[in-house]
Batch of 3 targets.
Target 1
Amino acid sequence: MNEKVDLDTVADARPASLPVHSPTPSPVTAPAAPPPAPRRNRLVRLVVVLAFVLALIAGGLYYEKIGTSTLDASRPAEPKGTPPQTVRAAEAVTGDMPITIDALGTVTPLATVTIKTQIAGKLMKVGYTEGQLVKENDFLAQIDPRPFEVVLAQAQGQLAKDTSLYGQAQADLARYITLSKQDSIAHQQVDDQTFLVAQDKAAMATDQAMIDAAKLNIYYTHIVSPITGRVGLRLVDAGNYVQTTDPTGLVVITQLDPISVVFSTPEDNLPRITRRLNSGATLPVTVLDRSNVNKLATGTLTTFDNQIDTTTGTFKLRATFANPDNALFPSQFVNVRLLVDTVTGAVVVPNAAVQLGAMGSFVYVVKDDNTVIVRKIVTGASDSTRTVVSEGLAVGDKVVIDGADRLREGSKVKLASAKADAGPGADGPAGGQRKGSGSGDGSGQHQHRHRQGGGDAAADAPAASGAAPAATPTAAPVTRPAVTPTAAPSPSPKPKP
């Protein structure tokens, strides 16, 4: 127990017992040297990937430069220079061009009558049906005539009385004149009797006037149509007491045949219209429906207003139309086309051929060598499809009507075939190019061939020189570096067991 411990001996003996519990054996630390090998592999793979990308870029530039003819020898070579523009053309022809004025108009009846009573009384009977076509002097309504018949009888009785007084006064006057000649009576009595005869005569005239007034009132109780036309909706029913002060009246009658259309046109057209009317010409007028498609009626210009509307700078005109089938209805909105004059033997081209630019109106004329030139023109009258060319074109000149948006002076063109002219469905690619760019098929073919070249380059890469070595390792260098780093740390946990 009391033995002295030799510390030096313990210190020398301690290393012998420790190796059993050492946590880091010397064989495990030795493999720390190999990490430089994966870095070299990554660097090599990165260089391979960069080389492959550069090879692809160089190959794309090479194919872009030499064209796609090296990929497929059977394809025809592209034409040198700008390919011709595909266009459609039409010839300038001789024709007649009507000079018309289009305007908006309103159907206006020549007569619209509101039937009102001219006396006060009870409405006894209605002699029409709503919407009925009535003629002049057809019966419409009956007002109670009995009060006016009584007044007539009174006036006739008063006339009979005054007639008797008048006869008596005339007889007395004759006797007084005889006595006056015999100096049997004074002359004043003869004069008084003369005035009394005149008074009785005036009373008779008054009575006759009362009789005529009563008869007129009785005539007013029987209401007839003053015009031929269509009856509107009934405004007053039978049994009502009507008066001359009623604002609505009994019914409205509108004349439908003939009928007129009132329309307005700018004042600049007034001299031309006036000149034609003064020469005795008859100007036809055509009326179309609201959609400006269906023709409703044809008539003639009747007259125009005597003043110009200063607020709008227009003046009104009236055209008359026969309307037996009631195609025109009062207050209907219509489109009016007035034929002022007709230009005969003029050079006419389609509207699509006329272009507008800084120098004014011009057209592209197709020459015999399939090139176009710019021709300045002076246009005249036009309609929805054609335009008159007064200067700059001759009959037979071919003008471009479709595909002119990318043309220039001297551009090479190719006229569209009859199949392409049939419509967009006749020739799909041609129609698509005209719709998309309005120019020729050169640009479309060029883009199409580049797309084909991109696909063929991938398919024909093994056959092309220098392309096969770069195409083979496409997937290997990309996928291996991603797998290798994940497996490198795996040796570290093995020494634990």
Target 2
Amino acid sequence: MGWNEEELKQTESIVREFLSANSDGDIECYLAMEDRNVVGGCALSVQRMLPSSRNRTGLQAYLHNMYVEPEYRGRGIATALLTFIFELCQKRGIQRFSLHASEMGRPLYERIGFEKSDNYYVKTSQDR
């Protein structure tokens, strides 16, 4: 969703390999459909963290790649996907969620209760 054909070609084999190795189900993908067409979707990773008084189960859901096709935006599709995921996670005892937001997605996430964190850092192995 949202990628051109060249980007898809460069990524497809890597993603297929990754998903085929994902035998423990730690990543789930959800699609929004209309008339057999994919109009939106996202992925969910469940991570086990150290439990705390704020997160007694130690489970955290990380939302990946929330996307709605441009012609379907503004119809509540992303909100419906998030509502579905929140309900699913609640049944599993997951109460903590995190994500990286694009400028476009920030108003939605803030409206439903996400708070921006100013202390998030990232390091990859290539960094020194």
Target 3
Amino acid sequence: MIIGTDFIWLHFPKCAGSFTEKLLKKLVPDNGTYLFDPIDTANVIWHQNIQEREKYLNYSLSNKEIICNFRRLPNWIISRICYERERTGQVVSKEAYCRGNFFEQNGKVEHADNYIQKYTKTDVTYWIRVEYLQNDFIKVFSKYFQIDNILIANAFKNRVNASQWNGDISKWFEKDDLATLYSSCPRWAELEMKIYENILV
């Protein structure tokens, strides 16, 4: 999470969050105006939602606009699976991930719609689509501070896919699998339809 004077950026996992955070650190002044979460594995708070952070801080954040990254459901599921496979070696079956399930680091099987429920408990003002990250980033954050277009261009030129898969969802999902995935994740499907005006089925 990043807290500015006028906005809060939520770090939705596997939605180019680390890249977005590093880019924001380069763009905003280092004068205490923007609060970045410390990376402390003994106190993991950077994936909190608004309610969790308000409880953690013991004060309200209701006076700020909310920004959050988002991506298409099949891409997110694949990225999540690849990340956990790299981190712990755990991979759910195809039947399970076609229903939106995946392993967390602690071995718990989680579901994609639970993440939608978590990050939309407070209305999000602006969504930044991972598939259009550069354009959406500029469009949204230029409302709050001066954008350095040269820095932005260089950052995106050198961007690396942290999950290290080639973006071909056909190697993971057939057409019927995608239909099963979206029908098993109605919250995600509804939000994706709202943000992208279609879903990948």
